[in-house]
Amino acid sequence: DGGITQSPKYLFRKEGQNVTLSCEQNLNHDAMYWYRQDPGQGLRLIYYSQIVNDFQKGDIAEGYSVSREKKESFPLTVTSAQKNPTAFYLCASSITDLGNQPQHFGDGTRLSIL
Amino acid sequence: RKEVEQDPGPFNVPEGATVAFNCTYSNSASQSFFWYRQDCRKEPKLLMSVYSSGNEDGRFTAQLNRASQYISLLIRDSKLSDSATYLCVVIRLPRGGNQFYFGTGTSLTVIP
Question: Could you tell me which of B25, B32, B96, B60 has the C-alpha nearest to residue A55?
């Protein structure tokens, strides 16, 4: 079945540590996105990529980094510069060409500080 | 002004009730509209697209009013399983590809 796979489901970060969240999709979608959701709040865009080897900052990119070396993969690194990383991280993908296609989400990664 | 605004609720309704949510958007160039459902501690899942002519899927009806720049979701005969947060989403097409704008969500609890 086609879909988006995020791993791990739960992740714990020690202070000063960088951690990487995985996002893989086999939907053949061009665009991929990373969001952060804090309890009781909406989704905030961290980074997005419309095409391989290109990505753009979203609203809250500071303390995060991404790469897009393959169409299927869009990993997110939460760096030690992100001082409040505890949140629910969601990866999404979409078709870009038509402007009327929705995003599809992975089932998320919960990140906590040890 | 936010791109998309929703009443956060919460809406607490009895089983069998009809409930409606509205969502307003600020940019008249917005192109496509969706409703998503998000269960507690889960990812958002697409509920339905929203078309200018209005569309229905079982107990759910979505409407778009471009003149007033709002979309709505009506749920009839509410079930306990409808309890969730409902997110409205708007797409625009500036340079650089699709931009998705999410509302903060409206919380619904259906009470036995």
Answer: B96
